[in-house]
Amino acid sequence: MESIYNFTEDMLKEYWLSKGEKPFRASQIIEWLYRHQITSFDEITNMKKSLIEELKQDFTLDRLDCVANQKSKDGTRKFLFQLEDGNFIESVLMHQEYGYSVCVTSEVGCNMDCQFCASGMKKKLRNLEVKEMVLQILMVAKLSKVRVSHVVIMGIGEPFDNYENVISFLKLINHPLGLEIGARHITVSTCGLVPKILEYANFDLQVNLAISLHAPNNKIRNQLMPINKAYPIEQLLDAIAKYIEKTNRRVTIEYILLKGINDSIACADELATVLHGLNVYVNLIPYNEVAGKPYERSTKEDMIAFFDWLKKRRINVQLRKEQGSDIDAACGQLRSKHMKS
Questions:
Q1: Which among 271, 171, 261 has a CA at the least distance from the CA of 211?
Q2: CA dist 57 to 42, 51, 259, Å?
Q3: DSSP 153-177
Q4: What is the pLDDT of residues 308-340, one digit of tens each?
Q5: 152 pairs with which residues across the strands?
Q6: How do 2-3 and 65-71 pair as beta strands?
Q7: For 151-197, what is each residue's pLDDT tens digit?
Q8: Which residues of 293-327 are buried (b: 16+ CB within 10 A; e: fewer)?
C-alpha cells in the first residue's frame, strides 16, 4: 500500500477516475487529510462506506516517530523524527511576530558539503518522499498545539537536489482546502543549483526563493561551498537576475557571518558591489558553531559593522534575530548527536 500523503490533488483525481468516480473526491480527501487531520479513513463522513473501504485497502495514513524534542528559552523547538527505514531527520518550529514557522528537511543527509554546516557531515542517503516532508509540518503542529502559518525549506539537504518531490510538497501545503499556507509565506532555499533556479522561475506558485550565498567572491565561496566550483558566483548571479526578471519577485540572500573569513568591511563592500541593481534582500545570520568545524561566530561589533556598511551602500539588509542558540539549533546538529549516541 502507498502513503496517501505522497499524493497531490492531480494524482488523487487520477486515482478516483480509475475507480469510475468523480474527480471532486480528490478535493474531499485533501480537506480531510490536512484541514481535519484525520488519523483513520473511518472519520470521513461525506463518502460512501464502499469508497472508504477502497481507501483503506489502497492507502496508509502514516505518522513520524518523534524521538527527541528540545525547547529553547526563546520558544524555538527542535524535533528529531525517525523514519520507517530507521533514518533520522530534523524539523524546527520558530515563533515569530507573524506566527509560527517550521523549517523543513528535504533529504536524509546532504551532498553539498558546505564546510561550516553540520548537515553535510552526514552524506546524503536518499531524498525524502513527499509524505515525509508533509508529515513534518503535521507532526510539529500536533506536538506543539499550534497552527503553522509559514514554512521554510532550509533544513537538512538541498531542496533543489530533490526537486520534483519538493514541488509536489509545495503544492500540497498551499492547497486552499488543505494546510492553506500562502505561497508568499513559503520559502525554498538553495545553495546555488543554477539549472534548477532557472527551472523554478517557471513554477506557477509565488513561493519565495532564498540563495545561500555566504561569500562575496569565488575565492571565499570555493573555500566554504564546493557547489561554487560547478556554478561560480557569476553564473549564480546571472541565474538570480533571470529569475527576478521572469517572476518579478525579490530574492533573499542568506549570508552567515564567519569570524575572520567573510565578515570584513572589504567583504561587505564587495558583496554590495556584486548585488548592486538586483532586487534582493540580504539576511545576515549569526553562526551557530558546530563541533568539529573550525569556524567561529563573528563578534557582535563586526556583525553590526557589516550590517551598517551594507546599509550605507543602500543594500536592503537585516541582521537575523538569533533563535535556539541554547539547543542544537544549527542544521543537522541534533541528528548528528543522536547518531553518535
A1: 271
A2: 12, 10, 57
A3: E-SSS-GGGGHHHHHHHHHHHH-TT
A4: 999 999 999 999 876 555 555 555 555 555 455
A5: 103, 187
A6: unpaired
A7: 999 999 999 999 999 999 999 999 999 999 999 999 999 999 999 99
A8: bebebbeeebbebbbebbeeeebebebeeebbeeb
Residue 216 is placed in which grid cell? 562575496
Identify whether the C-beta of residue 169 lies closer than 8 Å to the C-beta of residue 127: no
- Give the C-alpha separation, 134 to 150, whole Å: 13
Cell matching residue 155: 533544513
Angle between helices 130-144 and 163-174 (to 10 degrees): 40
- Residues making up the chain, counted from first to last: 341
CA–CA separation, 2 and 316 (whole Å): 46
- What are the distances in angstroms from CA 120 to CA 107, 157, 202, 243, 266? 11, 8, 29, 27, 28
Please list, in sequence order, all residues whose beta carbon lies within 8 angstroms of the beta carbon of residue 250, skipping any fewer than 6 positions away.
244, 279, 280, 281
Contacts of 145 (CB under 8 A, 6+ apart): none
Cβ neighbors of 293 (< 8 A, separation 6 or more) are: 115, 116, 118
Q: Which residues contact 337 (CB under 8 A, 6 or more apart)?
A: 328
181-217 burial string, b = 16+ CB within 10 Å, else e? beeebbbbbbbbbbebbeebbeeeeebbbbbbbbbbb
> Measuring CA to CA, how many Å separate 27 from each of 16, 33, 163?
11, 10, 24
* Residues annotated as catalytic (active site), given as ranges: 90, 331
**Is residue 220 over pLDDT 50?**
yes
DSSP letters for 309-323: HHHHTT--EEEPPP-
pTM of the predicted structure, to 2 decimals: 0.92
For residue 145, how many other CB atoms are within 10 A of its CB? 6
Look at the alpha carbons of 217, 219, 225, 229 in this order and tell me if their dihedral is positive or negative.
positive
166 dihedral zone (left: phi>0; alpha: psi -120 to 50; beta): alpha
CA-CA distance, 264 to 298, in Å (whole number)? 10
pLDDT tens-digit series, residues 229-249: 999 999 999 999 999 999 999
